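testing teh design pipeline on a random one, pls ignore if ur not involved
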């Protein structure tokens, strides 16, 4: 009887570890809860690269140590977004939970220093239009 229990116990442990292994390791998918500015670095002092619309899906590659800012990609643009406005979009028990609450459990990597900073978007060049003062008749 004990010969059967040991393999069953090992099988049960592997079955419980399977969902945790599936959630960790790779980028996480998250959805925005508001129109969200994507910035060149982790903070509001960095320039805005683009705006992610409400409900937009972003790929989260990592976050700051406290999950306040996340390194993410949206529509072929990579930058930083506020973690407060991201909800986890993958399967499992943490679906729909904010990234700051679920990030540790789903395996989102954390950056302690040396954050990647992305370059500014190209400047908008407007054509030159000469100024003509109003005419007086």
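output:
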């Amino acid at each position: 009887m004990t010969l059967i229990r040991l393999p069953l116990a090992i099988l049960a442990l592997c079955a419980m570890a399977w969902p945790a292994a599936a959630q960790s390791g790779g980028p996480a998918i998250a959805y925005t809860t508001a129109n969200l500015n994507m910035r060149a670095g982790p903070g509001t002092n960095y320039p805005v690269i683009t705006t992610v619309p409400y409900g937009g899906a972003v790929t989260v590659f990592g976050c700051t140590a406290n999950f306040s800012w996340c390194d993410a990609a949206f529509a072929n643009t990579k930058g930083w977004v506020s973690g407060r406005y991201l909800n986890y979009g993958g399967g499992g028990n943490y679906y729909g939970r904010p990234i700051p609450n679920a990030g540790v459990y789903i395996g989102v990597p954390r950056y302690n220093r040396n954050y990647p900073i992305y370059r500014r978007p190209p400047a908008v060049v407007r054509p030159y239009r000469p100024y003509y003062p109003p005419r007086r008749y």
